[in-house]
């Protein structure tokens, strides 16, 4: 990189740079060139754009993580005490399963208009709509605590499920817009962390707040307390988003983000972006594999109460604790994977390893569930959760790398859409298999698809476009930055063809 190529040799320089990136070059620590002072043109050459990291970025990602937590808590709050809500509303088990599956079903038709809105209006508008819908849903549920008002509580759950569409695709977008290249995967993990923590609390708290009592008035009181607490938290978070949440920093955090910002709005087409993504073969493989893995997690979470109660009757509280163990272990896995990616940039290798261990964890969990020892289930479920939910931020970040400079919200949205489709299919199919053949057969059903996903993950070609763009910008000194910027722009144009 010491010799300056001629402008006419930009393509040759780009090819050589790519070879260097694959074989010799590692990212320099941090986004060390966080220069708020713009360096003008030197020796007739164009200087790199100024970048800066703002302390406010941590407040933004933590606030997002908090309202994501509040929303995801409600995904599982019915399913984990499935038998209690069946008794209170006098409905069957499949109907209560739909209180979780509505989160998956709602996502599918609404994800495309929501990602379009994200691209057109930005992060702040999406955050406001998400928290408003979530808040409205919680107060509708407060008004539904009567045995004859199941339709009302379903309406409240639908409102919360619609809010989820505005939430799930945001972690990678917030990470890219606010964080430096050496912390972007960690930031994405923190964003996913909130969603996982909400699920963990959703497993733990409802069995404690709503005990399995026979008196309907007492049961209504317990359910009402849970709904009021949720509504209070959702309202507080909505107010915080109104006054605190910011669209984006004044200066971009990385050269890759600066390049993405520089694309003129009139050159961007949402439908063209979707078409480019659907022609990206590595990304298509990732869409399928991500859906298989996360769909299995959704099925396990939704049906966990049924599986545990089947082998350990009247252990609703321990079923919740096992769910908590799955998600807490997954949160640890997410953070470790995020930090590991920031240090090593080994996206495909890490994703493949975690996917394979998810398969191993599912096999062990399926084999030990019926042994009659709850402590064994806690251990195997924890191992399953560490890898299966630890995979979530890996999929998001790998997708951003494969699809740069396309919108992070769009790529994440397509991943989540796949997860919802497979989640509905797996939950319904596994539920029917459990009813007819037992829990072992239902879990083997999931193992088969995790095996398929592992094989397909190994076939994904690792094309780290975002890392290439950052490296091209940072590998050059002031004297040859003009040519490197041309090469980086060439990568962007090539990705958009």
UniProtKB/TrEMBL annotation:
The keyword Ribosomal protein does not apply. One of its GO terms (cellular component) is mitochondrial membrane. It comes from the Eukaryota. Pfam families: MFS_1. GO terms for molecular function: choline transmembrane transporter activity; heme binding; heme transmembrane transporter activity. Its main location: membrane. One of its GO terms (biological process) is heme export. InterPro entries: FLVCR1-2_SLC49-like (IPR049680), MFS (IPR011701), MFS_dom (IPR020846), MFS_trans_sf (IPR036259). It catalyses: choline(out) = choline(in); ethanolamine(in) = ethanolamine(out); heme b(in) = heme b(out). Residues 60-465 form the Major facilitator superfamily (MFS) profile domain. It is a multi-pass membrane protein. The chain crosses the membrane at residues 58-78, 98-118, 125-143, 149-172, 184-205, 225-245, 283-301, 321-340, 352-368, 374-394, 414-434, 440-460. It is found in: Cell membrane; Endoplasmic reticulum membrane; Mitochondrion membrane. Keywords: Cell membrane, Endoplasmic reticulum, Membrane, Mitochondrion, Transmembrane, Transmembrane helix, Transport. Choline uniporter that specifically mediates choline uptake at the blood-brain-barrier. Responsible for the majority of choline uptake across the blood-brain-barrier from the circulation into the brain. Choline, a nutrient critical for brain development, is a precursor of phosphatidylcholine, as well as betaine. Also mediates transport of ethanolamine. Choline and ethanolamine transport is not coupled with proton transport and is exclusively driven by the choline gradient across the plasma membrane. Also acts as a heme b transporter. Belongs to the major facilitator superfamily. Feline leukemia virus subgroup C receptor (TC 2.A.1.28.1) family. This is FLVCR choline and putative heme transporter 2. It comes from Seriola lalandi dorsalis.
